[in-house]
């Protein structure tokens, strides 16, 4: 069934420079306001190709705005999740801000509506069941999928066997009842992310990287995916220090080791803390 928003958007596509368009835009704003005001809306999505944003980048939007206001500064609590694939750990171009109360979400939207991050105007997307059919991260699933990512990453951090033992196991709200609070888990996983990277297109013969890169302090590495027919590999690497992890990306991201087929033979490195 077509929602009000979809109907209005379809009308606007065929209308330009008329009063009808202005009316349609007004209705869209009203529709968004009704979604934001729904008590079940506790999450905002922010789409970005930049994987390096941190909690501080989103928190300072509030403090910067309040510095120019005469009202008493307020603290708005939220958790920030960097959306990553729970199996392969790749960044999915989206951040999720999770609030405990809808009123906190509305206050945050109000204060930050004209703000920018890295000179780009912020555009928030409230997430609610039935309102955002393009997102699979709705309701309680936000936290559940993030927790699955954390479980798999902690296993990979230990060793290859631990990772493959748990990676395809289901996780439900019931199974996480004894897990730590989300804020504690985020802090713990950040420390792990600083020392981890995933790498595309390493040469097939370099199954173990440690002998080839002895000048980096690599704890262990393993293939998360491989296809010999296509000469495709996707590796997880755990470093002993954050500095080695950063240097590895700096030196090898974009490096072509065989010019005969640069698309296949270009190494791509993604550090899990985005730096």
From TrEMBL:
The lineage of its organism: Eukaryota, Fungi, Dikarya, Ascomycota, Saccharomycotina. GO terms for biological process: Group I intron splicing; mitochondrial mRNA processing; positive regulation of mitochondrial translation. This is Protein PET54. SUPFAM superfamilies: RNA-binding domain, RBD. Coiled coil: none annotated. One of its GO terms (cellular component) is mitochondrial inner membrane. One of its GO terms (molecular function) is translation regulator activity. InterPro entries: RBD_domain_sf. It comes from Candida glabrata (strain ATCC 2001 / BCRC 20586 / JCM 3761 / NBRC 0622 / NRRL Y-65 / CBS 138).
């Amino acid at each position: 069934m077509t929602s009000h928003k979809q109907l209005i958007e379809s009308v606007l596509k065929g209308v330009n420079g008329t009063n009808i368009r202005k009316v349609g835009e007004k209705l869209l704003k009203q529709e968004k306001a009704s979604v934001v005001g729904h008590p079940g809306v506790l999450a905002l999505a922010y789409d970005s190709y930049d994987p390096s944003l941190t909690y501080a980048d989103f928190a300072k939007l509030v403090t910067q705005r309040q510095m120019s206001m005469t009202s008493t500064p307020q603290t708005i609590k939220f958790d920030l999740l960097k959306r990553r694939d729970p199996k392969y750990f790749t960044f999915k171009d989206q951040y999720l801000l999770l609030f405990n109360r809808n009123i906190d979400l509305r206050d945050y939207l109000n204060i930050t509506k004209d703000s920018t991050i890295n000179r780009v105007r912020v555009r928030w997307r409230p997430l609610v069941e039935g309102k955002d059919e393009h997102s699979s991260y709705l309701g309680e699933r936000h936290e559940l999928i993030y927790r699955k990512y954390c479980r798999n990453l902690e296993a990979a951090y230990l060793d290859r066997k631990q990772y493959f033992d748990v990676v395809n196991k289901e996780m439900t709200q019931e199974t996480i009842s004894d897990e730590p609070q989300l804020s504690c888990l985020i802090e713990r996983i950040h420390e792990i992310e600083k020392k981890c990277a995933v790498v595309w297109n390493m040469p097939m013969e370099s199954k173990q990287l440690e002998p080839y890169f002895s000048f980096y302090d690599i704890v262990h590495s393993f293939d998360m995916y491989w296809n010999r027919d296509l000469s495709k590999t996707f590796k997880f690497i755990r470093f002993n220090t954050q500095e080695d992890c950063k240097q590895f990306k700096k030196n090898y991201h974009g490096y072509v080791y065989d010019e005969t087929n640069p698309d296949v033979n270009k190494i791509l490195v993604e550090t899990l803390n985005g730096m």
